[in-house]
Design a protein that fits this description.
The protein is of the alpha+beta class and about 80 residues long. About 40% of the residues lie in helices and about 30% in strands. The protein has a 4-stranded antiparallel β-sheet. A hairpin with a 2-residue loop joins strand 2 and strand 3.
Length: about 80
């Protein structure tokens, strides 16, 4: 199993345990790209997703509710991981 796939499984199984850097790698593996940073807010965009996606780094961790929002977007839009 690839490291990207393992990262996705980790996010699904334990959204509270995901580090911010892992969250960024996960989003990039699904085709998101960093659009801009404003303060602590990192705004990501994806060509197939209408919404902007905001994630924040809190002491090196991703906020669990933001991880869950991203996972829901992945499911809603049927995005596939770029392996």
């Amino acid at each position: 199993m690839s490291s990207k796939k393992k990262l996705y499984e980790k996010a699904l199984n334990n959204p509270r345990g995901l580090r911010f850097a892992e969250m960024v790698r996960l989003m990039e593996s699904f085709g998101f790209r960093l659009d801009r940073v404003k303060g602590s807010h990192c705004i990501f965009v994806h060509p197939a997703v209408k919404e902007l996606v905001n994630i924040q780094d809190v002491d090196g961790k991703a906020k669990p509710y933001q991880v869950q929002q991203v996972l829901k977007l992945l499911e809603t839009y049927g995005l596939k991981q770029e392996l």
